[in-house]
Amino acid sequence: MKSKMTFFVLCLSIAGSFSITPSSANAQVCHTLTQCRDLQTSVERRIQVLLTESGPNLDPILRHADGSIHTMTHQEADDYCVGRQTSLPTSRGLAIEAVRLGAAGIRETEFPELPLDNIHVRAEITFMASINYEPIYKPIDNTYAVDFYYNHTGYRTSLPADRQPIEVDEYWSSSMFQRSSSSLFNQSGPRYYLLTREGHLLGAHNTYYDNGNRIHRDTRHAVRCVSRP
Description:
Layout: H1 2-17, H2 22-26, H3 33-54, H4 74-83, H5 91-100, E1 105-108, H6 119-130, E2 134-140, E3 143-151, E4 171-178, E5 181-182, E6 186-188, E7 191-195, E8 201-205, E9 207-210, E10 215-218
Antiparallel strand pairs: 1-3, 2-3, 4-7, 5-6, 6-9, 7-8, 9-10
C-alpha cells in the first residue's frame, strides 16, 4: 500500500511540475498496473526530453587551422576552457549531450551521499545494471558514491542519417572518475570521465607513469567547452 501511495504522490508531483491543471491532473492518475506502467514510461520519456532541453550546449570540437582535431591533456583542456571564461562539461553534461544524440537516458540515484560499499547502494547498482544503466561515480570524503546512472544504448545508432553528428570523437569532462593512484611499479594522476565515440562514459588518465618500463604518458583527447550564454 505504501509503494502504491508513493507512486500516486509521485505522479501528482510530476504532473504539477508540468503545469497540468487539476482537472487534467486527474486524468494522469493510474488505476491498474498496466496503466501505471504506461504512465511511468511516459513520465520517464518526458524527463529525458526535459533533461536535453535544460542541459548545457557544447562548443564544436577544437581544431587546428588545417581542420584536424586539436587534442589536449586534461590540464591543458581545462586551462583552455577557463581561458575562454567557460569550463569543460561535467560527466552529467556529457551524458545529456549523449542523450541528445540517441542514448537511452539518465536516471538518478536514491543514495547520492552514501559510499559504494553501502548495502542499499550495492542493491541499487545491481538493479540498475539489470536494465542497462551503469553507475557514474563521484568522489566523496575518502571514498566514492554514485552520482547518477547512464544508459548509452542507442547512441548515434538510433538517429536518422540527417541527424548524425559531425563532431564525433572522445571529449574530456571536468568530473573526476578516480583520484591519483600509485603502486610499486607505476603511478598515475587522477582519471577524468570522457565520452567515447561509442557513447560510453569512461575514465581516462591525465598522466601515467610506468616506473618499470620508464614510460611517462600524457593522455590526450578532444576538447569541447561549455558554450557561453
